[in-house]
Design brief:
The structure holds two protein chains of two kinds. Chain A has two domains: 90 residues, RNA polymerase sigma factor, region 2, helix turn helix motif (Rna Polymerase Sigma Factor, Chain: A, Orthogonal Bundle); 65 residues, Winged helix-like DNA-binding domain superfamily/Winged helix DNA-binding domain (Arc Repressor Mutant, subunit A, Orthogonal Bundle). Chain A is built from nine helices and no strands. The termini of chain A are far apart. Chain A is an all-alpha fold. In chain A, helix 3 crosses helix 4 and helix 7 crosses helix 9. Chain B is mostly helical. Chain B has a domain of 38 residues. In chain B, helix 2 crosses helix 3. The chains are: A mainly alpha, B mainly alpha. The interface between A and B is large, with 50 and 31 residues.
């Protein structure tokens, strides 16, 4: 499948537009996790994020006929995800914005990272909740989900520089909120 | 950065495979529709210019709705024209005003007079 790696998103979308299921499958695998991470910024629920992502992909495939292959697929797709998420939140009676981070008590510990002190985790969660939603989203996408600032910018529909600014301010605020003596965050 | 919370998203590859499968299955039918109608002019049009197809459908519907009304009107005029007498006696009796005695006598001579002639 070396061809798949060489194909751009736009080429794959163009092939999917002509009914190529394999090309669409590659797109799905490329964008599934980013889409879930983006949806999670709105819902803070894995189950709700799944619904949003499935609906977003559904709308994407239905709208492929109108997709302009000269435009970036990622921007087009992430706009659909954000619109679906906003609509879902509005229907649910919630404000259509990036919601605060929820406690992570139902999240399994990462395998490659050392366990987090429960007290410390609670402090971090509380500090994260006090960040502005846009700062929290940038920090979450870059430092928790591991996306680059460029990728996060595409997902959020903002400039790369804005993402870096939000992330920097989020880290500064976290340092103020958390005890710096614990050395929780990189200086 | 080991100090921030871990990702809330599932890590199990099987989870992502299953989710991708659901998304892919959901797309199979629409993608097949993109593929199949390429050879048909209607399918091609519906994919390339859905607004044109929709506009055509609306125009056809409007025409269909308008035609029966026009036919009924034409039919009523035809029936009325067909039933209206066009010979002399019919015109006399079918007029808007009652015929005058003189006009009736001109077409219907008195029977007694004719019998007397015999």
């Amino acid at each position: 499948m070396s061809d798949e790696k060489e194909q751009t998103d736009e080429e794959l979308a163009g092939a999917a537009k002509r009914g190529d299921l394999t090309a669409y499958d590659v797109l799905v695998r490329r964008y599934l996790r980013p889409a879930m991470a983006l949806a999670w910024q709105f819902t803070h629920s894995v189950a709700d994020s799944e619904d949003i992502v499935q609906e977003a992909f559904h709308r994407t495939v239905r709208s492929l006929a109108s997709y302009d292959e000269s435009r970036a697929f990622s921007a087009w797709f992430y706009t659909i995800v954000r619109n679906v998420a906003s609509t879902a939140l509005t229907k649910a009676g919630r404000r259509a914005s990036l919601a605060p981070l929820r406690p992570l008590d139902d999240v399994p510990e990462p395998e490659a990272k050392p366990p987090i002190d429960p007290d410390l985790a609670e402090d971090v969660d509380q500090a994260l909740e006090r960040l502005a939603p846009s700062q929290r989203a940038c920090l979450h996408l870059c430092d928790i989900e591991g996306f680059t600032s460029v990728e996060a910018a595409r997902m959020l529909g903002i400039d790369d520089a804005t993402v870096r600014t939000h992330r920097r301010r989020a880290l500064e605020k976290l340092r103020l909120l958390l005890d710096p003596e614990k050395g929780l965050l990189p200086q | 950065m080991t100090d921030l919370p871990p990702s809330p998203l599932p890590r199990d590859p099987a989870y992502w495979d299953a989710l991708a499968e659901r998304v892919r299955n959901d797309a199979a039918l629409p993608l097949a529709a993109y593929r199949a109608p390429e050879q048909e002019w209607y399918g091609w049009l519906s994919l390339r210019a859905p607004w044109l197809v929709a506009a055509s459908a609306v125009a056809a519907l409007a025409l269909w709705l308008a035609l029966p009304a026009r036919s009924a009107r034409d039919a009523a005029q035809w029936i009325e024209g067909s039933l209206t007498p066009n010979e002399a006696v019919g015109s006399l009796l079918g007029g808007a005003a009652p015929p005058s005695v003189e006009a009736m006598l001109a077409h219907f001579p008195p029977a007694l007079e004719r019998e007397g002639e015999r």
